Amino acid sequence: MLDGVTAPEPAARGLTTPQTETPSGRPVRTAAFFDLDKTVIAKSSTLAFSKPFFDQGLINRRAVLKSTYAQFLFLMSGADHDQMDRMRSYVTNMCTGWDVEQVKSIVGETLHDIVNPLVFAEAAELIADHKICGRDVVVVSASGEEIVAPIARALGATHAMATRMVVEDGRYTGEIAFYCYGDGKVEAIRQLAAREDYVLEHCYAYSDSITDLPMLGAVGHPTVVNPDRALRKEAAARDWPVVTFSNPVSLRDRIPAPSGAAVATTAAVGVSALAAGALTYSLLRRFAF
């Protein structure tokens, strides 16, 4: 839907029109960049892992209760820059010393239950439209890369860019190797564009959050999805399209069960669960439990 009315067909959106050509007659390489939470999926991927981490003793009951309420607040209003900054600080303190193998095991065992149902049907269809048009699809998220990557693969995305945690001697150091957020997303997008020869002025981007304003402004065709209040205001001022996705569907049959090798690559996935507690802390620090 487009601000309460039926969204136009792909051709009307300009998605199926011929891509711009270079002077040599070759098509310009382009991509569509998608934020994850509340843009492609119907809830926060970071907050979703509080229960399995509680079950394995990594967080306490108080954190689970806060996480549940934070999920509600996130769905209602999202998180602003200050909250995200507090989240990053909280993550670096909380995760220090966590055993990576334990985190990998928990995520490998619970991934399917966590992401089902998760993905907006409208987002999946839009991704398919871009692929039909010959564009690469890139999922760009502040969540941990081992959470983002399997969802991106299930959607048929070409690339996934996400936050990476530092690991030494099998444990999290409490440091972030790369924070895929705000200007960090733009940095990652520009580096990928340089490698893949994308022309950003002909590329597309989709997000729900004011924190992704730099990403949206980095491409020629930004679209605002399920926006928070601040981003809706910016979109109106810049005359950007605003769309509403509201139909989550199951990916259970689209995401294959993780192999041993896949589970073994989840060293940095702890950032997703860590960020759950961090975002909870930043959103709920003014509430008493």
> What is the rounded Rg?
19 Å
Please give the share of residues in helix.
40-55%
Globally, the shape reads: globular
Q: Number of helix segments?
A: 11
Give the class-level CATH name: Alpha Beta
Order of helices and strands: EHHHHEHEHEEHEHEHEEHH
Cα-to-Cα separation, first versus last residue: 38 Å
Low-confidence stretches: 1-8, 67-78, 255-289
How would a crystallographer describe the biggest sheet?
7 strands, mixed
Strands of the widest sheet, in order across it, are 5-4-3-1-6-7-8
CATH superfamily: HAD superfamily/HAD-like
CATH architectural category: 3-Layer(aba) Sandwich
Q: What count of domains describes the coordinates?
A: 1
Structural class: alpha/beta
Percentage beta strand: 15-25%
CATH fold call:
Rossmann fold
Walk me through the topology.
Blueprint: E1 31-34, H1 50-55, H2 61-77, H3 81-94, H4 100-114, E2 119-120, H5 121-132, E3 136-144, H6 145-154, E4 159-168, E5 171-178, H7 183-196, E6 204-207, H8 213-217, E7 221-225, H9 229-238, E8 242-243, E9 248-249, H10 260-264, H11 270-284
Parallel strand pairs: 1-3, 1-6, 3-4, 6-7, 7-8
Antiparallel strand pairs: 2-9, 4-5
Helix pairs in contact: 2-11, 3-11
Which key features would you list for this structure?
289 residues; Rossmann fold; globular; 7-stranded mixed sheet; disordered N terminus; alpha/beta; 43% helix; 9 strands
Short overview:
With 289 residues, the chain is α/β, with parallel strands linked by helices. The protein contains 11 helices and 9 strands. It comes from Mycolicibacterium moriokaense.
